[in-house]
Records
---
Amino acid sequence: MTSANNNILQQGLKKSITRLAAKRFSTTEKIVLVIIVAGALFVANHWFNVKINALKTRTKIIEPVVPAPGSRTPAAVQPAQTKTPAAPEGESAEKKPATDSRDPFLASKNPEKQQPVVNQKKPVIDLKVSGILWDENIPTAIINSQVVKIGDIIYGKTVVDMEKDAVILMEDGELLVIKLHKE
């Protein structure tokens, strides 16, 4: 548009607003205007929600989720406590320096103490969603008889999102979608 067209539109808009501001509306006209404005706001809100939901489904953007305060971490996720190795026969544990167990570079300094790294696979746990209580603000699901919300951790997997028929979990940066188990 040219600047002349913009000026004409601005002047017309100013005249219309000035006329509306100067007019005294009857009660019926006020009610009709309120209904029109409310309807326009409702339609705009619905349109934006549809666009945002469409964008969410097209793009797989996942925001980092911090576990909710007070949420429990399952025992399987908690780090195992390490036991200090027993002293070889003839040596007492008191002769060992206290920094032995704390020095992360000690194994590289003493090749005879190096232990081979064993690549242990994580146990595969069959997760089943037996129910979803859908709520726009706080959806809740039942996975393997445990009630979880977004941000909770179950078997080392973080609940990152919920839909009406599925729960989305994340473990080590990988997404896992579990559909609602229907019998």
---
Amino acid sequence: MRDWISYWDSDHPIYVNARHFDVHYANIADDIIRLLPGKQARVLDYGCGEALHADRIAANCATLYLCEAAPTVRTRLEERFGKIANISIVTPEDVAAMEPESLDLIVANSLLQYLKRPELISLLKVWRRVLSPGGALVVADVIGPKQSAIADALSLLRFAAVNGFLTAAFIGLVKTTLSDYRKLRAQLGLTTYDEAEMLKLLAEASYDAARLRPNLGHNQGRMAFRAQKNPAISG
């Protein structure tokens, strides 16, 4: 497997069972709903993955764009949500071609670790262009350089205990250790940022940004940030 997109487009063991799969995406949907600025909001979930509960997000906004780079995942999104009028399944290229100032909220959750720094810098420019005045960009589940795999595992086990899949989580962690994910992570690495570095990167991309708490999802050892266009900078 050559890259992260290929990995997410494959049959991978990240979700240990159907319960984990469901409650993970339910949790993310709840968190995104809390971020919505209103029923008229135009929202982009960039790198949305399977987005199992995107219909609940769409019920609380005007338009929801689900952007996913993995072709097989996009096909499943179309099958799942294609008949919902205010949900559109889009590619990264579609987002780049959107009209300026056409979105009120952009969420990029658990994405940055799979992007090289130049890729993120390019995306920040795209997102800024399509973000409306007063709109917000939320980047979440950002991994800090001191965040350990053990801390991530413990966070998952706590989440599993609360949601009734603890035994499956133990087994899943063992499988993940032996899986292509671990091999690909060793080969490609994950991109990490500390808080100051992330804020500096957003400022250099002409955003006003601050740390957002809580993080989206179950892992509160990771970070989230909320950013808006700096009104003093045009373009």
